[in-house]
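Support request from a user on the community tier.

User writes: "When I paste my structure tokens into the form, the page sometimes reloads and wipes my input. The last time it worked, I copied everything first. Here is what I submitted, just in case something in the input itself triggers the reload:"
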């Protein structure tokens, strides 16, 4: 089969036209991949930064966001049959640890992620356990179904924080930050403020439903947001940037007793004023990882079926798998926001 392989300890991926087709185990499903999404994680793997070098096994097929059609099922699979259009939760666990057994499999200690720890979906075929399969509603187009993974991150963050009838600040409008704006709006946020360095992304944030957008380098914006929120600050902070300055500013704009949900990953440990921003403020801080299995997926489907999510403008580019270099460059340069590749 055709596949993109992390072929060496260095930047880039290699197109392999002759990768052996994976063989599903008894409880696995073999999926013929239709479309895939390129994630920020794939950028780390492409650029081969410190994180990727320490985590990604050389020789792996990368990619974890996809939609496809079931081609074959293992002998013990009972819920699925060939022909069903599906995506999948990429976090594979044995289901045996404390968190898996108490409804929190998304933070299981034995999680292995497709395209990171085991072969992924930048290929004609991918194998996942039956429990990870998510059947895609027929009304959801492939272009959207290919990016349910990051959309699920946004839904998880917004739902964990609770935004209904609340003012929300989104710091960082990358892919998931932008998605979180349309999700927060659909979930009933009263007003949404957003910050980003990139003027094009700020403009898109506004289009997707942000009440007001700010360049975080203009220092007056925090006071402006606080003034707009009874002089006290926003009810909810969704931190999507992984920038230490955004942490400082975001918490500066959060009201006492507010909720902060943190999804952005920081490049290095940061110095942060916990006394001022968390303890005396009496706020709640939530770390967000992955998607709840499968509560987030059900919520995401409901939000998609409501027709209130605007995702068309977030998925900006599509390339065939063979043009993976152009696809990655379009994403890395910032020219594209969400870039999708067509496989099948
Ligand atoms: Zn992803």
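"...and here is what came back when it finally went through:"
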């Amino acid at each position: 089969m055709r596949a993109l392989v992390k072929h060496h300890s260095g930047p880039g991926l290699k197109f392999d036209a002759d990768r052996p087709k994976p063989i599903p185990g008894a409880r696995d499903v073999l999926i013929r991949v239709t479309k895939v999404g390129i994630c920020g994680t794939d950028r780390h793997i492409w650029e081969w930064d410190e994180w990727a070098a320490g985590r990604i096994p050389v020789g792996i097929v990368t990619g974890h966001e996809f939609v496809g059609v079931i081609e074959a099922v293992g002998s013990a699979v009972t819920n699925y049959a060939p022909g069903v259009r599906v995506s999948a939760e990429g976090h594979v666990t044995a289901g045996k640890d404390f968190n898996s057994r108490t409804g929190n499999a998304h933070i299981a200690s034995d999680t292995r992620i497709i395209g990171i720890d085991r072969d992924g979906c930048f290929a004609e075929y991918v194998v996942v356990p039956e429990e990870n399969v998510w059947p895609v509603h027929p009304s959801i187009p492939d272009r959207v179904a290919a990016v349910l993974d990051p959309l699920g991150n946004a839904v998880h963050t917004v739902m964990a924080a609770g935004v209904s009838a609340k003012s929300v600040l989104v710091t960082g409008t990358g892919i998931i930050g932008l998605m979180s704006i349309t999700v927060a709006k659909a979930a009933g946020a009263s007003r949404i403020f957003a910050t980003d360095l990139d003027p094009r992304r700020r403009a898109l944030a506004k289009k997707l439903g942000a009440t007001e957008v700010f360049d975080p380098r203009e220092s007056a914006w925090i006071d402006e947001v606080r003034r707009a929120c009874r002089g006290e600050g926003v009810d909810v902070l969704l931190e999507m940037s992984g920038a230490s300055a955004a942490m400082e500013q975001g918490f500066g704009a959060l009201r006492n007793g507010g909720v902060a949900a943190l999804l952005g990953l920081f490049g290095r440990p940061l110095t942060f004023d916990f006394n001022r921003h968390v303890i005396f403020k009496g706020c709640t801080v939530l770390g967000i990882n992955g998607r709840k299995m499968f509560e987030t997926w059900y919520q995401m489907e409901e939000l998609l079926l409501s027709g209130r999510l605007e995702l068309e403008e977030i998925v900006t580019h599509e390339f065939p798998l063979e043009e993976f270099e152009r696809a990655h460059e379009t994403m890395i340069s910032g020219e594209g926001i969400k870039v999708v590749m067509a496989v099948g």
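Agent notes: The reload is a front-end session timeout and is unrelated to the input. Residues 151-287 form a domain with the Rossmann fold fold (CATH 3.40.50.720). The chain has two domains: 3-147+311-342, 151-287. Escalated to web team.
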